[in-house]
Specification:
about 425 residues; alpha/beta; 7-stranded mixed β-sheet; metal-binding; GTPase_HflX_N_sf; hydrolase
Length: about 425
């Protein structure tokens, strides 16, 4: 890339240290899953406890010696830490271990780089990688001693390190400009949906909770879904028709994780904006995961960070098949549905989810009878397109007697577009004159 580093391999020794500060404590099982998702083979796991991280190498001298022996015994060329390392710590560890050292942030960035498929996703990942790399450039050029002066080396010009930093800043600036154009396009599409009054639903949740499996089953999409962390990276939008609501735009978003690197949250802000401006968030939760309460808190923290903390939310407890439970709905004291238990893999409970979405998205429904003449065929066709017709009968004069059930504002808008006076069809109470 911009500098040389020790040659890396896929056989890795993992390092997980529990510090007394519980806020910085990571999960070992999740760490192992991250490594597997990145494609590395974990040869061994070094664990331990420590009062606080060592400023120089994160771990103490005893653990450092033990790690050296593990790397030698397993012929591993990569050491992965389940912690965020400072650039100086990473540099010192590579000097001591003579192998590639990767921290938790770098590991997640590597997974994201493998998963990105769209142009936008690749730009976002590259931006996060470059900003992460910018603090670690010095390591690659220390062996060249290019920053020292000397006979024949003094004078104008810049060191190799300064050149790389300049190139890096230029590339970061260029990516920001391109992402700004992508954001503008997304905002324009979002405003178009708002003008058309099409509700939007965003699937959010901890990584590997089953969002993509649920998304594919609901929308007949072909989003990549696998039992691994961050299987989905690029956002996907699909249309979904909901009874009593009509067309809905559903978005599948990137999964969240404990201590998601801030650089990633910033880089993917345009993508996550789909969640921040959604009509409803469907929070998919792995009901069989013993850490589900902790994962719910982590997702809520990220949603707060991107400005989606106040968006209405529907909880979906997925993977009930692993618990031997039947699908069901849960309501609060006011009768509002707040949780759906289902199995996305078995497509069990989808009718309950559709019912819950209809209840949470449908506002101010109206049920009425309309009589339309053959000349009003456009209005009749539009009512059918909006899935508002429950029953239809024709009399001897060719008039259509329609039993209609649909959102009030949709019906009034259709009558207006057809140049029809709502007084001829609806009672004052049905019209909702203050809205007209």
């Amino acid at each position: 890339m911009f500098f040389e580093r020790p040659r890396s391999g896929e056989v890795a020794v993992l390092v997980h240290i529990d510090f007394q500060d519980s806020t910085e404590r990571e999960e070992t099982a999740e760490f192992m899953e991250l490594v597997r998702s990145a494609g590395a083979t974990s040869a061994a796991l070094l664990t331990g406890t420590r009062r606080s991280p060592s400023p120089k190498t994160m771990i103490g001298e005893g653990k450092l010696a033990e790690l050296k022996e593990m790397l030698k015994a397993h012929e591993a060329e990569l050491a992965i830490f389940n912690h965020s390392l400072a650039p100086s710590q990473e540099r010192n560890l590579e000097r001591e271990l003579q192998c590639r050292v990767l921290d938790r942030t770098g590991l997640i960035l590597d997974i994201f780089a493998q998963r990105a498929r769209t142009h936008e996703g690749k730009l976002q990942v590259e931006l996060a990688q470059l900003e992460y790399m910018s603090t670690r450039l010095v390591r690659g050029w220390t062996h060249l001693e290019r920053q020292k002066g000397g006979i024949g080396l003094r004078g104008p010009g810049e060191t190799q390190l300064e050149t790389d930093r300049r190139l890096l800043r230029g590339r970061i600036k260029a990516i920001h400009k391109r992402l700004d154009r992508v954001r503008s396009q997304r905002d324009q599409s979002r405003r178009s949906r708002e003008r058309a009054e099409i509700p939007s639903v965003s699937l959010v949740g901890y990584t590997n909770a089953g969002k993509s499996t649920l998304f594919n089953a609901l929308t007949d999409a072909e989003v990549y879904a696998a039992d691994q962390l961050f299987a989905t990276l690029d956002p996907t939008l699909r249309r979904l028709d909901i009874s009593d609501v009509g067309p809905v735009v559903m978005a599948d978003t990137v999964g969240f994780i404990r201590h998601l690197p801030h650089k990633l949250v910033e880089a993917f802000r345009a993508t996550l904006q789909e969640a921040a401006e959604a009509s409803l968030l469907v929070h998919v939760i792995d009901a069989a995961d013993p850490q589900r309460e902790s994962h719910i808190e982590q997702v809520n923290d990220v949603l707060d960070e991107i400005g989606a903390g106040e968006v209405p939310r529907l909880l979906v407890m997925n993977k009930t098949d692993l618990l031997g439970m039947s699908p069901r709905l849960e309501r609060d004291g006011d009768g509002v549905v707040h949780t759906v238990w289902l199995s996305a893999r078995d497509s069990a409970g989808f009718e309950l989810l559709e019912q819950a979405l209809a209840e949470r998205l449908a506002v101010d429904l109206i049920e009425t009878e309309l009589v339309l003449t053959p000349e009003q065929g456009w209005l009749r066709a539009q009512l059918h397109d909006h899935q508002g017709v429950r029953d239809e009968q024709f009399d001897d004069q060719g008039r259509a007697h329609l039993s209609v059930r649909m959102p009030r504002h949709d019906l009034l808008r259709l009558l207006s577009h057809a140049d029809e006076n709502p007084d001829n069809y609806l009672s004052p109470a049905e019209q909702g004159r203050e809205q007209w």
